[in-house]
Amino acid sequence: MNSTASKITGIVIAIVQAFDILIHAATDQLEFLRVTANIVILVWLAILLFGRLRQVSKAASAGAISLYLLLNLIFLFQSGFTNPAQGGAPRTMLFILVFLTIVLSTLFTTNHQGSGQIP
Hints:
Elements: H1 3-26, H2 32-49, H3 58-79, E1 82-83, E2 89-90, H4 92-114
Antiparallel strand pairs: 1-2
Helix pairs in contact: 1-2, 1-4, 2-3, 3-4
């Protein structure tokens, strides 16, 4: 993946995070753990995309992605796999957004590592 494709991937990840926060704000269902997880990814992306640190290790990237996943898993175990505010429907949007974030973030990390931007 070239530099332009990598930036586009990063932007898509950021859009997914912003969408996740906005959908919860719009439905008056802001959850601390979910928003914190989104912010972890947004900060990690900002560090990489804006070059605030010359090199971010693969371990640091894996740590950010793992923390995102952990916070969402804690949320699921605390709040359940269904959403009472939606009549007990499964949290399908959560699963889709978390899956997209994990896959795209892993791809983004792998690409940055291949380009030498992540040692």
